[in-house]
Amino acid sequence: MNKKALKIEGMTCSACANRVERFVGKLDGVDNANVNFATETLSVQFDETKLNNESIEEAVIKAGYGVKKNIKTYTFKVEGMTCSACANRVERVTKKLHGVENSVVNFATEKLTVNIDEDEIGYGEIKAAVDKAGYKLIKEEEKVTGKKKLEASKILLFRFIVSLIFTVPLLIITMGHMLGMPLPHIIDSMMNPLNFAIIQVVLTLPVMIMGYKFYTIGIKNVFKLSPNMDSLIAISTLAAFIYGLFGIYKINIGETEYAMHLYFESAAVILTLITLGKYLEAVSKGKTSQAIKSLMRLAPKTATIIRDGKEVIVPAEEVIVGDIILVKPGEKLSVDGEVVEGSTAIDESMLTGESIPVEKSIGSNVIGASINKTGFIKYKAIKVGKDTALAQIVKLVEDAQGSKAPIAKLSDVISAYFVPTVIILAIISAVGWLSFGETPVFALTIFIAVLVIACPCALGLATPTAIMVGTGKGAENGVLIKGGEALEITHKIKTIVFDKTGTITEGKPVVTDVLTNGISENEILVLAASAEKGSEHPLGEAIVRGAEEKNLKLKSIEEFNAIPGYGIEVKIDGKTILVGNKKLMNEKRIDIDVLAKDSDKLANEGKTPMYISIDNILRGIVAVADTVKPSSKSAIEALHKMGIKVAMITGDNKKTADAIAAQVGIDIVLAEVLPEDKANEVKKLQGENIKVAMVGDGINDAPALAQADVGIAIGSGTDVAIESADIVLMRSDLMDVITAIKLSKATIKNIKQNLFWAFGYNVLGIPVAMGVLHIFGGPLLNPMIAAAAMSLSSVSVLTNALRLRNFKV
């Protein structure tokens, strides 16, 4: 019997608890089921031979409730993978573990990302499963640093150079006679065939020792019935080597004709060329993660802080929340914080992509890794370590690079069956040619060529490398793409829904017009701003800011009375001042006909007119509006050129919404929409079977961002909106929506090219290696040429992915 405790969600009373108990208690194998409504916990005792956890969870769901799981995401480094078949194997064994919700292996970054229920499984069980599969799991998430990549490539370079040192003389000995190169009598194939053969063994063994990993990993995976690329190399080169040893035996008993058919040079050349390919692959892989390295290098190593009244230089990682940090002109900021002294201009382009330095003064927020350009400031540390904006961006990019796009599923399925199929085809080809009367040497050539030409690496690298470069390039341009799926879907978008306030518009009302009746504009503005000085209404704040921008001196008020829904009534210099809407004027019976036409015109333009009366006589109107962002119109025009429809959603009245829509060229206006209904409006557009993106910045946009096929959050928006989105625009510039779409198109095009070459290479290469051309009188594929082609296929895929680094907006 096994005991299990499950957290139940959705229960609202004891009747719910009883229902869950009944449904679970009826299951065959359950000995006892008890629900504690207070703790929302189901305790169940059951027979493991008759029942499993999934069946119990299904019963809870059938009862109408849910099982709350403690799901967390972890990323581990996996060592020992050499091709996509390895990555698929690690994925398969981890997905089978109870408690693992999802498992994704990125072969390009050599990382395993798992979503696990911590109540069900821990690191130990995952590690054991990966170890059993023949790979090594590292608990601490390792950052992809240039040093580590360099070390890996240096080892491969060393192995290649040593292999080359022995392979070149081996080739001269075995093939030099074709070029008229004489050999010393002691190793001449005609005079001393045994010596000729033995020297080849002596030169081949060091090359095989340098390539020992192909054998330790490849052969082990064959015995585990999970062959990979290393298995293909190991089997083919061992076959050539063993056949060579057989040839030496034949020479030793007098059959000297075997001296010309030993195949030692094929084994050595194959290993040397594959090692060269692996080296070039490692170098290229390092370049694909350049974006992460560049971001991580942005952070300064030290910070100057004030402790005990003294300036102290400490490592940046030792800065704690609350520390006061000094930054001189030209220095980088170490962490995120708030300016407490001084003013300056700060270059934030490395994080936001915005080239113009941003003015900062007391109270301004500053971002770690940005550069102080002009002034001397002190600021208080607010976010340090993994909480800084830079650390969060690095994490987002790493997560995105570790994700898979839906387009990768095809290559994953093929890769899973690829290597076993190739081995079977190699055996069929060799046996087939033997049965048609060809010699064992001919059959061996075919067998080795088929094994060596096949390249699962190219398939495995086709998608993740392009995603790594694409998401990295997005980060450089201030566009944070959270995953491969978002990157893929973005290029399919047919309709984009923009929230109005703070997205199309600035989100901050400003004074746009001042109309007067008998007094000057400045007088009206002074009176209105003085009256609104004590108000917290956004429109009132806009009027106060408008007066302050003109350096107008405000007057003190003698009385203040707020009239909710109408406006305010104050006394200034003994005069009664009313500031409010048309309803307030009508309520107080103030004639507004003198400015009625102008007022209607302002309203039709989407502006809000605020009426100002002095002693019951209308003296002016101050119009306030949320102005359109400079980039909104050009962004929408660009979207139209791309064939994308643009909708605007807002809670504002239809007249205001139509006015804004007319200014920027919106196709669909969704006005007077309540916050909770925004997601439904997005759903209606999706109902037309089209891909819809939502662009927003507020908390009330979060459900719509989540509902959309692609949610795009403005970087200046709320944390909730950013968390709900698939893409984050760091600069709050709508032109970056265009960048995201163009980058998606470029990346998907690159992935399709990679998959075409990877599939095409194998579809064409394997039949040629099997001898199809030879049937029609064509040439056979030399195993050494097959090895070179195999190495180049992976490098070509990586090189093509790296072309994305040249992406320009």
UniProtKB/TrEMBL annotation:
What main location does UniProt list? membrane
| Superkingdom assignment | Bacteria
Cell compartments where the protein resides? Cell membrane; Endomembrane system
* Transmembrane annotation, as ranges: 156-174, 194-212, 232-249, 261-280, 414-436, 442-463, 755-777, 783-802
- Lipid bilayer topology: Multi-pass membrane protein
Q: Which UniProt keywords apply?
A: ATP-binding, Cell membrane, Copper, Copper transport, Ion transport, Magnesium, Membrane, Metal-binding, Nucleotide-binding, Repeat, Translocase, Transmembrane, Transmembrane helix, Transport
InterPro entries documented for this protein: ATPase_P-typ_cyto_dom_N, ATPase_P-typ_P_site, ATPase_P-typ_TM_dom_sf, ATPase_P-typ_transduc_dom_A_sf, ATPase_P-type_domA, HAD-like_sf, HAD_sf, Heavy-metal-associated_CS
Reactions this protein catalyses: Cu(+)(in) + ATP + H2O = Cu(+)(out) + ADP + phosphate + H(+)
The chain positions of domain HMA read 2-68, 72-138
Record keyword Transmembrane helix present: yes
EC numbers, comma separated: 7.2.2.8
**What family is this protein classified in?**
Belongs to the cation transport ATPase (P-type) (TC 3.A.3) family. Type IB subfamily.
User: What is the protein's given name?
Assistant: Copper-exporting P-type ATPase
